[in-house]
């Protein structure tokens, strides 16, 4: 499952634990942002699919965050989850727009499972449309690619090339086969276009410590998962 989760607030130990658990046990991109840095403009810029409110100063901070978020058009429909001490919950009259409450101290396995279920229910995630290879995740229906937390912008051809590689890991393909499968029978541009596109694709998805596409000398290319 892929999605961008933003954890907002200054209960850093609990927020960090949830972030690490989500990164370890799901394919969510999870980010922390302090209450001070969490202006509505910044929250909108982060393009979260789900926001976790992790307040340090109790119920008043919850309401402040909640109503601020709900007043911003780009954020109005983003699902909200609350991290809260159980003792605080007994006295809280929560707004109806809070979809889930996770209690501190966190039971991480349960917390991850509940976030997974909420995300799946709200966003109607179809696992058949996702391809995951190590830290790289492709959402076929949304034409989205992420490496870890980073969203990658690809052209249509780069996306189709990467999808073909990800669907056939550890298989070596010649340039002619790649032209046939990705560009189609009607493409007459020559095999050099494969090299150009692969070079551009690698520059976008790979880094100093990440290699996904390997050159097989005198033959072609293959995709290797980081796992």
Reconstruct the topology from this structure.
Blueprint: E1 2-8, H1 12-25, E2 27-33, H2 40-45, E3 50-53, H3 59-70, E4 80-85, H4 86-91, E5 98-104, H5 108-123, E6 130-133, E7 136-139, E8 144-147, E9 150-152, H6 156-167, E10 173-174, H7 175-183, H8 192-205, E11 213-216, E12 220-223
Parallel strand pairs: 1-2, 1-3, 3-4, 4-5
Antiparallel strand pairs: 6-7, 7-8, 8-9, 10-12, 11-12
Helix pairs in contact: 1-5, 6-7, 6-8
What does this structure look like?
The chain is α/β, with parallel strands linked by helices and 227 residues long. It has 2 domains: 2-125, Rossmann fold (3-Layer(aba) Sandwich), CATH 3.40.50.2300; 153-223, Arc Repressor Mutant, subunit A (Orthogonal Bundle). It is 39% helix and 25% strand. It has helices at residues 12-25, 40-45, 59-70, 86-91, 108-123, 156-167, 175-183, 192-205, and strands spanning 2-8, 27-33, 50-53, 80-85, 98-104, 130-133, 136-139, 144-147, 150-152, 173-174, 213-216, 220-223. It has a 5-stranded parallel β-sheet, with helices on both faces. A hairpin with a 2-residue loop joins β8 and β9. The radius of gyration is 21 Å and the shape is elongated. The two termini are 17 Å apart.
């Amino acid at each position: 499952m892929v999605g961008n989760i933003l954890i907002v607030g200054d209960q850093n130990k609990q927020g960090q634990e949830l972030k690490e658990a989500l990164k370890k046990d799901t394919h969510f991109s999870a980010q922390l942002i302090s209450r001070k840095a969490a202006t509505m403009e910044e929250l909108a810029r982060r393009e979260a699919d789900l926001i976790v409110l992790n307040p340090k100063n109790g119920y008043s901070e919850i309401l402040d965050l909640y109503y601020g978020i709900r007043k911003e058009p780009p954020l109005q429909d983003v699902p909200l989850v609350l991290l809260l001490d159980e003792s605080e919950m007994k006295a809280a009259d929560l707004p109806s727009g809070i979809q889930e409450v996770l209690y501190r101290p966190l039971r991480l396995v349960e917390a991850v499972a509940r976030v997974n279920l909420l995300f799946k229910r709200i966003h109607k995630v179809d696992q058949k449309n996702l391809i995951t290879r190590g830290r790289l995740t492709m959402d076929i229906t949304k034409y989205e690619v992420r490496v870890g937390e980073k969203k990658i912008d690809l052209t249509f051809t780069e996306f189709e090339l990467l999808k073909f590689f990800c669907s056939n890991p550890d298989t070596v393909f010649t340039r002619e086969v790649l032209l046939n499968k990705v560009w189609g029978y009607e493409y007459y541009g020559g095999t050099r276009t494969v090299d150009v596109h692969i070079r551009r694709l690698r520059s976008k998805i790979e880094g100093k410590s990440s290699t996904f596409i390997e050159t097989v000398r005198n033959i072609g290319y293959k995709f290797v998962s980081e796992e």
